[in-house]
Specification:
Elements lengths: L5 E4 L14 E4 L1 H10 L2 H10 L3 H12 L1
Antiparallel strand pairs: 1-2
């Protein structure tokens, strides 16, 4: 099997995130599953720094308040 990456939504679609390139990062399958299983908000902040936009900053602030 060839190595591959999965697309992870920084602000999850289920939490109102956009299905856009700016709201995604590529992750290996293990890390991607870990993000969803652990649902660690600190990791969300780290990922957001990789793909930062003003809109993403607003969305992230809303997610952190929830």
């Amino acid at each position: 099997m060839q190595p591959y990456l999965e697309c992870h939504h920084i602000v999850w679609l289920a939490r109102g995130g956009d299905d856009t390139i700016e709201n995604t990062v590529a992750m290996c399958p293990n890390c991607h599953r870990r993000m969803h299983v652990l649902d660690d908000r600190r990791k969300l902040t780290e990922l957001a720094k990789l793909r930062w936009t003003d809109e993403l900053a607003r969305n992230l602030a809303l997610v952190e308040l929830a």
